[in-house]
Each structure stands twice: as structure tokens, then as C-alpha cells.
Amino acid sequence: MMEITEGSHAVAEAVRLCRPQVISAYPITPQTHVVEALADMVANCQLDAEYITVENELSALSACIGASAAGSRTYSATTSQGLALMFEVCFNAAGMRLPIVMSIANRALGAPLSIWNDQQDSISLRDSGWLQFYAEDNQEATDLHYIAYRVAEDHSVLLPAFVCFDGFILSHTYEPIDMLSQEDIDRFLPEFTPYERLDAADPISFGMYATPDYYLEFRYEMDRALKESKAIIQNTGKEFARMFGRDYSAMVEGYRLEDADTAIVALGSICGTTKDSIDEMRDEGKKVGLLKIRVFRPFPTEDVAKALAHVKRVAVLDKNISLGAKGAVALEVKDALYSSGIPVKDYIIGLGGRDVRKKDIKAIVALVEKGQGDMFYGLRTEVL
Amino acid sequence: MALAVGCRGRPGKSRDNKTGSWRVFKPVFDREKCTKCGLCMTLCPEGCIHETVEDFVDPDYTYCKGCGICAEECPGEAIEMKQEEK
Amino acid sequence: MVDKTLELFDCGHRACGGCGAALAARLVTKAAGTDTIVVSSTGCMEVFSTPYPETAWKVPWIHSLFENAAAVASGIEASLKKQGRKEKVVIMAGDGATFDIGMICISGAFERGHDFTYICYDNEAYMNTGIQRSGATPYDASTTTSPAGKCSFGNKLPKKDMPQILAAHGAPYVATASIAYPADLMQKIEKAVNTKGPCYVQVHAPCCTGWGFEGDQTIAVAKLAIETGLWVNYEMVDGKVVKAKKVVRKPVEEYLKTQKRFRHLFKPKRQDAEIAAIQAMADRNAEKYGIDIKLRKE
Prior knowledge:
By secondary structure, chain A is α/β, with parallel strands linked by helices. Chain A has helices at residues 7-17, 32-43, 57-69, 80-85, 87-95, 120-123, 138-153, 182-188, 215-244, 270-283, 301-308, 328-336, 358-369; strands spanning 2-6, 22-24, 50-52, 74-78, 101-106, 131-134, 161-166, 174-178, 205-206, 252-255, 262-266, 288-293, 295-297, 313-318, 344-348, 375-376. By secondary structure, chain B is an alpha+beta fold. Chain B has a single domain (18-83), classed as Alpha-Beta Plaits, CATH 3.30.70. Chain B contains two helices and four strands. In chain B, a hairpin with a 5-residue loop joins strand 2 (49-51) and strand 3. Chain B is elongated, with a radius of gyration of 16 Å. In chain C, 35% of the residues lie in helices and 16% in strands. In chain C, a hairpin with a 2-residue loop joins strand 9 and strand 10. In chain C, helix 1 (20-32) packs across helix 7 and helix 3 (69-83) runs parallel beside helix 5 (103-112). Chain C starts with 19 loop residues before the first helix and ends in a 9-residue tail after the last helix.
């Protein structure tokens, strides 16, 4: 059913439809509307869940670990400083192979303190073993939660998942959303069947320690599960498309890319602005296209290489920076294109919520055509 | 045995580790002095002392580490720690 | 009814011979029974009981991180509630995980009033990492991060009063216990596990390796701690002390001289002022909890 709703509320409704048994989250801007909406649903008997008002983020995810291990579908949400505070818990949850889904309303990391959007927070946890989905708009932010639970809970995956959507830009924006019904989601996402659980009837020890004889193999198994999840993502996306018409089976999506000379690569809401900018540049005769990356972990290396094989140059928009090196997405795109010889330029953009306009995308295309890049785009040298 | 998902384990495997090999001294139980009070069974950190014949107790020497708590605490002084010949 | 003849903590674990914590694990699981889910923090007990693939736990068990056992337990409790399941949730954490790094998670969990039992096995230092001081380390104990030396008598700080802190959070039942008195310990565990709400039991578990005494002395040392008044076994119901174990008190010296961690108080020179200060702490405990048995004079 179509409704005009705030991104956060659409996400909360999507989570409600997934029927989590335990919700454990700590409020932090700009995720607050999500957790408030969920609390409201519980208080009004619209959501039958235990809602744990934890005292900090590391407890939030820790409680999810306990609840998931005990056999419940669980949910949390955070961003920025909160995600950073639960750094070790993220690695722990993935290593314990618990299919927790957590929304990330992407926000910049301090210092300096910033409440505004960039993608440094979730990108900085790319090593953790969590699946990472990035939403272009609120429809994707909503639908990706259903997809994430299905994929995470698959017994051949059993890894937790981030569903990332840009803070304020998506979370606090009203858009028309096709909200699916409880019957729809019950058909798509069955009751949680844990692979194993804490149960007196069948005692298991969860979270043993691994000596050097075993640790490498456990990490290998996680890497294997993450890489093999690509097929699960594809099948799940296809089934969703069959049932509801929207196709999330591809980890990357091209926009006017088939005959492009210049390709822009990006994650998240910046793709919307980029598409509008591309339409204008196309009208002016420029052969520009976009490769949107919707799944960042596992990284779709083969898909990226295939999609960009024919282009003359690539401009990567990075809403993050690995300080002292480059933007994280650019480094991985370069890896995918290593043997192709295609030049890849990196543009650090939109950090700390700085607005990105269509004209900025055009300016970047002009720069990459001149072979200029690997820079902080829009650096205000006058304030340095 | 295939690698357990998430580094998990089921009960029983700790018994593969025969901690009796750690021992230097071995508790020897004197049934003449034993009053069957059961204190040694309660206090053994390994839980390896069990009732065997006629409610008397014996340690499971496969796991007994020879810590000596049973000998030290036995009210009847019925347990003696003897150096083991290997 | 819990079958107390069952051994739910198996042989083959890698605790030192004479380990107080291993005994605590055995007695606690015995008292709690098979319908229990145990949450362990990182520490000696977790490490000596679960080197993959060997686990000594015969009840469902989970270890996550050092500081978060109380938070993990909160999630388990919520999940069980939702599923309508009846297993008891029992946390077993060392003093390091409880008094120090776990404070945030414990405070939050007790404030929220989850139905679980938190058992702290107190060996008075971070033992698993090599005997560093914790908030539970007693005054003048020598540890590797509070060593006795030419200008130090060891740990300068008093033991944090965790039982009182958690009673102040509204815990309905709080108790201290010791492996020296196993029947009493098991009774308290049973009471805690069957009391609704967040309950706390702090179990004194002397460590032969960390405190410096022979493994066969573990129970004897634990008894002396109580007999000198440096450890008091008591129970609190709804924040009020209702019962404390009474003793015919011995001078603190008799306890201190059994352990290498206090040897600097006697050698090379007897430190009268320090021993007196420790005696004063024992005297204050005796006063506060009313533990002195006053023998009638003939």
C-alpha cells in the first residue's frame, strides 16, 4: 500500500512486519525516530516484542547476542558513535554466527563531533564479517530489512547484517513508500529457525575459545559464508521480485552504464542525485553512467569488474576516507579493476553532512575527464 | 569432526583431556578410616571422586590432578597423598 | 526439584589443581540444576572450561566478551520470556568482569530488573591474564600491577563493596558465600535462582596460583578469611542484612601469613602499622555485620 512516510517510520514498520521477538537499542541521532516508533508500537500492542531499554550501545548489541543465541529474531539500530562503541561486540556477533539485523542511519564519526551524514561508521566495520546493504532511497531502506533477515538467517550464511541508509537525508525525509502487508511479509519471511540455540534440552557451549590450531579455520569459514552469501542474496532478491515486483537480486545496479565512457561509482542516497545529474549530462551529449553498489559486504568484485569493463574512466564518490590512504570504496573498486588498466579516481565527498548537488557531480565528471582526482572534493581552502 | 559453526561445542569433549597426567602426588583412600561423610566428593574441584563399592569413595585417577584438597579436608584423616611412581 | 547428585561441570577442564573457581563452578551448577543457561564472562573459568572443542559445561552455556555478560543475560532472559520458556539464567563472572569492566552492563541490567542470578567468583584479581589488581583486590595485596616494593605495600585501595552497590539497585536478594562452606553456598544459589528479579551472590574463591599458597590449602585459606573477619558471609533481602555468619574471630595475621601476596607484610621486616590497618578493617566488618561470637567468661 502506498503511503507518504518518514524514512525512519518506514524502517520501523518494516521491522515490525519482520516480527522480532526482542528489540534492544540505544537512542542516537539520527536513528532516534526508528527506536521511538518501535517503542510506540510496543506500547500500543501493535508489536509483540520484548523492548529492552539498554543503558549503552555495547549492551544493546550484547543483549541481541543473548536473545539470538536463545532462539529469538532480534533487532537493533545505531549509527556513528554508537556503532563505534559496539566495535568489539560487532566482531563478536559475527564470529558467533548470529543472524542479527541492525539498521545504521549513517552518520559521521567524531572527533570532531558531527551529527550529519557520511558513511564512515559502517564502512569502518567492513572487516567485521557483517553483511552490508546500502539503500539509495527509503523504498530500498524499507525492503532491504526483509531481504537482510532472509539472507542472514539462511543456515548457509548465519551472519549478522547492517542495513545502511543515510542519516537525515533518508531517515528524516518523507517519500512515497509501497509498504507491504503483514500477510506479504509472513509469506516471504518465515518464523526464525535458529541453526542451534541455548536450550536445556540440548546443551551447547556457545563462544568457546580457539587456539592457534583452529582460529584461522574459523575465520576462513566466515569468509566463505560471506562470499557464498552472494548466491543467497541473488535467490532471495529474485523471490522478492517474483512476489512483490521490486528486484534486489543484483548486488550492483547500472544506470545508463551500458554505453558510458565515464562511470561514477557510489553507495547510498548520493546515487539519486547522481542519476539526476547524469540525465542532464546525457542531454548535453556526455556518455556518463552510474554503477550503484547496493551490497558492500560481501564485496561484489566480479560484478563490478564486469559492469565497468567497457568504460574509459571511473570516478568513485567516497562518503568516507581511510585516513592516510584513500576512500574505502575506491580502493576496492581499484582492486576489482586491477588488470583492466582502466583509470580510477577517488573523490572524498559529502563528509559530515556537506550537501552534494547535481553541479558537484558534473564538476567531478569534468575533473575525471581531465585525469584529475584522488582529492577531497570541494575543499574549502579559504578556511584552512 | 567437522568444524562447529561459531566455535561451539557439545558436552563430553572435555573428557578427552586426561588431567590425571598432571599429578605428582596421588591421593590414597583408607577404607578403614573412611566415615563415608562425602566431604571429599563435595570439595574436589574436578568432581572426580565418586561412590564406588558399598558407598565408599574412589577418585577417578584418569582426571585426579593430585591437588590434595581431599586429603587436607578429610575429617577422618582417611586420605594420604603419596608420591606417584611413574 | 533439582537433582543435586548430578555433576554438571565435567572432568578434563584445565583449571590449576586446587582451583577455588573450578569448585565454585561445580557447586553452582549443582545447585542451579539442569534447567539453567549459564552466561560466562571472559576469564579463568571461561578459559579453563572451553578450549575448542573441549567443553566442561553440561548445561547450555554462552561466552561473549569480558564486560557484557549481564547484557547478554538480559537478552537471553527477554528471549525466554517471549518464548514462554522456564530455564533459569545464571551469570558466572570473575571479579574483574564484575567489579571493573562490567560495571556499566551490570548497573543497567540490575536497574532494568531482569530475572536472573549474577554470581561473581571472587579470586580478588585478574587471574587469567597473570594476577593484575582489580577493584576486588584487598588492601595491601601484592599483584603484578600493584606490586609490593621498596616504596609500596601493594594495593593501596579498599575492596569495592559490590554487594551493597547492587542492593542499592534494588536487587531483592544479595549474598556473599565461600567455597569453604559448600552447603551454605549451594543453599544461597538455590535461593537466588528461585527469587524473581536480579539477584547477586559473591563467592569467595581463593586462588592458589595468584595468592601464593599450595593447592591443598584452598579450603583452609577460605575458612581463615571468614574466621578473621576479612570476608563476611551474609545475606541481604530487599537491601537489608538479614543474616551474617558468626565466628570466634582470629587475628588477621593468621590469614595474611598463609599467602605470598601478603608476605611483604612480614618479611624482611614485620609491618606493624599495615597489619594494624588491616586488623582495623576486619574489626569494622565485625562491627558492621555483627559477626563476633562473644564467648561467656567462666
